[in-house]
Amino acid sequence: MKAIRVHAFGGPENLKYEDASDPKPGPGQIVVRIRAAGVNPVETYIRSGIYGPKEFPYTPGTDAAGTIEAVGANVSVKLGDRVFVTGSPSGTYAQLALCNASQVFPLPERLTFQQGAAIGVPYGTAYRAMFTRGGAKSGETVLVHGASGGVGVASVQLAREAGLRVIGTASTERGKKLVKEQGAVEVLDHSDPNYLKQLMELTGGKGVELIMEMAAHINLGKDLTVLAKRGRVIVIGNRGPVEINARDTMARDADIRGMSLAHATDDERVRMYSEMGKQFAAGKLTPIVGEEIPLAEAPRAHEAVMKSGAYGKIVLIP
After folding, report:
1. Pairing of the two strands 29-39 and 15-19
2. Would you list the domain boundaries of the chain?
3. Over the stretch 125-150, which tens digit does the pLDDT of each residue have?
4. What pLDDT digit, counting tens, does each position of 227-257 carry?
5. Is the pTM of this model over 0.85?
6. How many beta carbons lie within 10 A of that of residue 246, not counting itself?
7. Class of domain 2-119+287-317 (CATH, top level)
8. Residue 24 neighbours by CB under 8 Å, 6+ apart
9. What is the CATH number of domain 122-261?
10. Do 48 and 31 contact (CB within 8 A), yes or no?
11. How many CB atoms neighbour CB 294 within 10 A?
12. Cα–Cα distance between 86 and 270 in angstroms, integer?
């Protein structure tokens, strides 16, 4: 098969399109024929060495969608079944990927493979941040920073379906239109110096109960000034140190809560993806694909996923 392989830490140019051995399933494992693979910012951090030691060579990627190619013992799925993938020991930037059975879920017929590849990290992250860590409740107001990206779109849709009032931010007209279409009652331009003042006006001076924060290194200090009493900031993304005034948390009994999808237990992952699977099938949740890029051009995808002005999910096509 063809796969993207990384032989050393470095820039996007270190993503090499190469021949690799076809994976073989062991007990409780599945091999999926990949039709589309999702690209996430975390994969650029791993490639660059930010997260520390790695055994080389490796194939990046955890998100994908495709069909069942082979199964090991004690697996009940059928060959040819359409599935989406939420993890892979072998990596999903490839024509074939080895997965544990607990990482594979039925792909609803209404979704394309490209949309299925946009589920894993974005929707898992949004769900865990909003409900498991954020304790979101119907009737609360949530601010979704960077709402036009993969996690942002998922957050807006999940909040809408849970009965929250959603205010999103985006920096392009195309992105703002998308966020509005997904269910936000208002969309603010986070490049506007007055956007936080506008936010407070929208909440009658009360502030928001929950903030989904994709760039804490830029926004965290300011987030704390627009929280309602007992409000929570969920840190989903961060690219460096940040200075805050802790008094702003004291004034509101506010919480800053970190979140990593990697900390979800197997049972938690199965529960949340199974629950969301019903919502995907019912048409309540719909992944947005912003760009499709050939697998061989993975370096270009890693450059694109780190640019500002995000719009939906970037997927690779083997």
Report:
1. unpaired
2. 2-119+287-317, 122-261
3. 999 999 999 999 999 999 999 999 99
4. 999 999 999 999 999 999 999 999 999 999 9
5. yes
6. 10
7. alpha beta
8. 31, 70, 98
9. 3.40.50.720
10. no
11. 12
12. 10
